[in-house]
Amino acid sequence: MEPRFPGEPLGLIAGGGRLPRIVAETAMARGFTPIVVRIADAIDDDWDGFVGGYFAWGRTGDAVRFMKASGVSRVVTCGTVSRRPDFRSILPSFRTLIMLPTAFRVVRGGDDRLLRNVAAFLKAEGLEPVAVQDVAPQLLAPHGPIAGRRPEAAEDKALFLALRVAQTLGSLDVGQAVVASQERVIALEAAEGTRDMLHRVADLKTRGRIGRGERLVLVKAVKPQQDERFDLPSIGVSTIREAESAGIGAIGVTAGKSLIIDYEALVAAAGEAEIAVVGLAGGDVGQTAAAPHHSDALGEGSS
Amino acid sequence: MEPRFPGEPLGLIAGGGRLPRIVAETAMARGFTPIVVRIADAIDDDWDGFVGGYFAWGRTGDAVRFMKASGVSRVVTCGTVSRRPDFRSILPSFRTLIMLPTAFRVVRGGDDRLLRNVAAFLKAEGLEPVAVQDVAPQLLAPHGPIAGRRPEAAEDKALFLALRVAQTLGSLDVGQAVVASQERVIALEAAEGTRDMLHRVADLKTRGRIGRGERLVLVKAVKPQQDERFDLPSIGVSTIREAESAGIGAIGVTAGKSLIIDYEALVAAAGEAEIAVVGLAGGDVGQTAAAPHHSDALGEGSS
């Protein structure tokens, strides 16, 4: 996606984590002027040198007005929203009051749906939502090996079991993440989110509920939905660390439909943790062999 | 199932909980002589007046020999096995050593698979496994209202969503339990077990991750499998209590393929907790709008 004119203001609704900063820097490099609306977890993040500010949930209306006043027509939304807005503490502006029913819906159901619903909300406000991969296509996961070592045979078996289950869950519009071994499904993500699910797996391991011979893998798969563009699963260094403490040896993401956050750091962390990270294609389900090995697979994600 | 001769010895491999005692008393009333092999959680249970004893995992061989010496040809296995055998503390007999590989496999994967695999193990030992419902068919859940109040419209919608998801999971041989609201799936059981899943839901509620308008329900569905006879989901008073503390208003089980443990006590607990308990048939999924509608506004979920 290119600027419509040099320095086109690009709205960036930024939650927490590394992703918003990466998107902002990519946008600048491509000739956009990011207008940064920090929300939720981004309250303490340092965005010096960027135009913008932090907006509490009660100031949703002000945030929209601020972006419009800054000449924004297109808006990208990303980042984590782990803190829930405390609506009791809100002194909403009149404009926000009108939006509150939407705001409540937006918050319902955790990060993924929140970001998806923000897109619908922006449309209703006359702003054009654009996806992270439109601004930063280089973040899309390639097909095949991504980082760390190659999966072993047992891990390949587990990856394809987890992918099959994850896609079935996705078709029911349930969570995106599954932990499996080569023998069975260990954990399924629903409303609790991937991090909580990985903590659960670590706990099961501690309690000896996972067999010594079981090789654990994590698969994050995209939901086959209209609005998947605004709901791509993502992995980053924190995913590697959480997977490591859960005893997970391999991570699979849907190629071309997942975001790799902070690639260099992820490669380093995966190497350190000796975790295999691979991009899986839907067609991989049913295969028994390892994911295809292209040495230059990294370029393909953006195609 | 009737005794082949008056006082036929019936092997009862008893884990913890109320179920084994109920099965033993039913068996006696029908003219069997229960031979009680207590395992796992049953270590401290009072079984005075019944023939049998407690057997540690290392004495699996002795337990089989004891049943055979008592004239047992048919064996029913039930009860909870939440404690994992500590194989380091085992001083196995020679006969048990031969079985240990099986024993390990049996323990893998938590209660359900354990009880299922015990059946296969008994067959291999020349004993005939019989299902709880063969001995005590009165425990099978009926179709329709079972206990407590009737489900409200929003809970009906949630029940059908949860049943649809639970059956899909079952077809993938994953867990049996699902928590849903009228709008979305909240939690999916895999290796952690129903109790841990309900604790998770309570935690999500505490953290405000569940909307005020969401009416939560729990569905335990049987897996469509050959050996489902030895793996029926069950609910009892403890299920009601755990559901209550998770903020769940209705519980659905698969009619004719789930066990109601301690019916009178469950009715009392469900009435007290104002929880609806219903028996669902597979065909029920077709009824009503089972599809989730995430974009529903607050409160409209029941429409």
Automatic annotation (TrEMBL), chains A, B:
Look up the domain of life of the source. Answer: Bacteria
Q: Where is the LpxI C-terminal domain?
A: 142-278
Gene symbol here is lpxI
Protein known as: UDP-2,3-diacylglucosamine diphosphatase LpxI
Q: What keywords tag this UniProt record? A: Hydrolase
Q: Which residues form the LpxI N-terminal domain?
A: 10-139
EC supergroup of this enzyme: hydrolase
Tell me which PANTHER family the record gives.
BLL4848 PROTEIN (PTHR39962), LPXI FAMILY PROTEIN (PTHR39962:SF1)
Q: Which InterPro entries match?
A: LpxI, LpxI_C, LpxI_C_sf, LpxI_N
Output the Gene Ontology terms for molecular function: hydrolase activity
Q: What is its EC number?
A: 3.6.1.54
